[in-house]
Design a protein that fits this description.
2 domains; 53% helix; Rossmann fold
């Protein structure tokens, strides 16, 4: 079996991971492309590994860590004010702990697998994960709009959001409800499903919202292939159903992290 065939089915999830780590579609895709190029060129190999997905992510980690800037703690701004204080808290988050947290929470790799990727001891990975948890727990809370038509899933998401220290403004089941709910409360984060109760689209709801308001969006869907096409603007933050609690917590925190870092922006996502 060729290398291309071996890794092809894992590339969409690698791109999702890269965008979550970098907070930007273009940057994330650049790292994903560099990873594939390193494999094709033979600089880094997945060999005849039984777990091609794990080896693919190992190569990605090697590529990401080969750029010194990714492992350097940024300069801390000592200016005053609540926004500056929030930015300092975000800047102090260790890049390596964020990497370990996403490998565990988003991709579900074990502590031993992450230790192999980072070339360190398992105790060090455990410490990185604990550090990430402390850093995330210290974040300033925000308000969250949940766009989800399945009551049980909506309740699960609400519980996870509350556990992170945020509050839920409303749970919307249709596009119209979502747009109205956002206008009424202006939440700081939106969690959105794609297929909604009346046959409307969560993507359409999000696109309508971001036309006039900047807000981080996390899509939660059983159909990630509808968004991860590589041919059009894609969401930086996407969770696949059925989801794990750790995954939701990791991605929500990453979305807020990069929203604080990047400042106001708007984006649209299309599915056809």
């Amino acid at each position: 079996m060729t290398v291309s065939v071996t890794i092809a089915r894992h590339i969409p999830m690698l791109r999702r991971f890269a965008r979550a780590l970098t907070g930007d579609q273009a940057s994330g895709d650049s790292y994903a492309i560099a990873t594939i190029e390193a494999i094709v060129a033979g600089d880094l190999s997945i060999g005849q590994a039984k777990d091609a997905r794990r080896e693919l992510f190992s190569v990605f980690v090697s590529v990401w860590r080969s750029i010194p800037l990714n492992g350097v703690q940024p300069q801390i701004d000592n200016s005053s004010g609540p926004v500056a204080a929030a930015d300092r808290m975000l800047d102090e988050m260790s890049p390596l702990s964020r990497l370990a947290f996403l490998l565990r929470g988003l991709e579900g790799f074990s502590v031993s697998e992450i230790a192999g990727m980072l070339a360190c001891e398992q105790d060090e990975v455990t410490a990185l994960l604990a550090q990430a948890g402390r850093e995330i727990a210290g974040r300033i809370s925000t308000s969250v709009l949940i766009i989800e038509d399945e009551p049980i899933i909506a309740m699960d998401l609400e519980a996870l959001v509350l556990d992170l220290g945020h509050r839920v403004t409303q749970i919307a089941r249709t596009r119209a409800e979502a747009v109205a709910a956002f206008a009424a409360d202006r939440p700081g984060l939106v969690l959105a499903d794609i297929n909604l109760a009346d046959g409307s689209s969560g993507v359409d709801a999000v696109n309508e919202i971001v036309q006039s308001h900047s807000v981080p969006i996390v899509f939660i869907t059983a159909y990630p292939e509808r968004l991860l096409t590589g041919e059009r603007p894609e969401p930086a933050f996407l969770i696949t159903k059925p989801f794990q609690a750790e995954t939701v917590k990791a991605i929500v925190s990453q979305a807020l992290f990069f929203e604080r870092k990047a400042g106001p922006h708007t984006a649209t996502v299309t599915t056809d």
